């Protein structure tokens, strides 16, 4: 019996089923990034109506719309389309440079309630002010190479190599190298606000 397949060997009905999951996945990623449809439209050049139809499944996704969305959301294209796993559990991180810092993603984000990053912070004058932000979620960090300055509200904490901290990101917070040398840290961030604790062995 002949089976309808695409050039990659995936049955045609399997491709259709795969594409049906793209809309909910796009909505989930956009919500996780705390973006409105209008925000995405402004940054990608796609219309709000196109984005809405994609997320509701009324428009079949194509590369010309998925690529700018993947770039905006900073996720691999195969995450948006739910491509089958290859069986290789390794992650191939792509560093992202932003505001002088280097972010190295250590999770793919596929349904994971927690996102992991390695963050390299540039050296600075320890007396310089630290910019703070507020957003939903909960964060845990571990200092690989310090010192690190962690500012929560008006309180400043200095963390050295091997020390960890956790805090609610709805509280004003900011981090920066505590010296003229770069600082390297690992970060676990929970958009859902789930608390992450280290328990004694």
UniProtKB/TrEMBL annotation:
Keywords, ordered alphabetically: DNA-binding
Domain HTH cro/C1-type: 26-80
GO CC list: cytosol
MF terms (GO), sorted A to Z: DNA binding; DNA-binding transcription factor activity
Annotated InterPro entries: Cro/C1-type_HTH (IPR001387), Cupin_2 (IPR013096), Lambda_DNA-bd_dom_sf (IPR010982), RmlC-like_jellyroll (IPR014710), RmlC_Cupin_sf (IPR011051), TransReg_Diox_bact_type (IPR050807)
Entries under Gene3D superfamilies matching the protein: Jelly Rolls (2.60.120.10), lambda repressor-like DNA-binding domains (1.10.260.40)
Protein name, entry field: XRE family transcriptional regulator
The species this protein was found in: Streptomonospora mangrovi
């Amino acid at each position: 019996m002949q089976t309808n397949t695409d050039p990659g060997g995936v049955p045609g009905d399997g491709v259709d089923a795969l594409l049906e999951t793209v809309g909910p996945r796009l909505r989930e990623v956009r919500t996780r990034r705390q973006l409105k449809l209008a925000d995405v439209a402004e940054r990608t050049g796609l219309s709000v109506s196109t984005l809405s139809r994609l997320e509701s499944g009324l428009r079949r996704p194509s590369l010309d719309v998925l690529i700018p969305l993947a770039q905006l959301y900073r996720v691999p294209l195969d995450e948006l389309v739910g491509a089958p796993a290859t069986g290789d559990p390794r992650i191939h991180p792509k560093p992202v440079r932003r505001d002088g810092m280097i972010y190295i993603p250590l999770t793919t984000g596929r349904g994971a309630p927690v996102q992991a990053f390695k963050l390299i912070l540039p050296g600075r004058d320890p007396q310089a002010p630290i910019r703070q932000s507020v957003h939903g979620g909960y964060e845990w960090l571990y200092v690989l190479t310090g010192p690190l300055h962690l500012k929560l509200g008006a309180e400043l904490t200095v963390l050295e190599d091997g020390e960890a901290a956790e805090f609610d990101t709805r509280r004003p917070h900011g981090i920066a190298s505590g010296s003229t040398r770069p600082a390297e840290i690992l970060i676990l961030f929970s958009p859902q606000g789930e608390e992450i604790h280290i328990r004694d062995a």
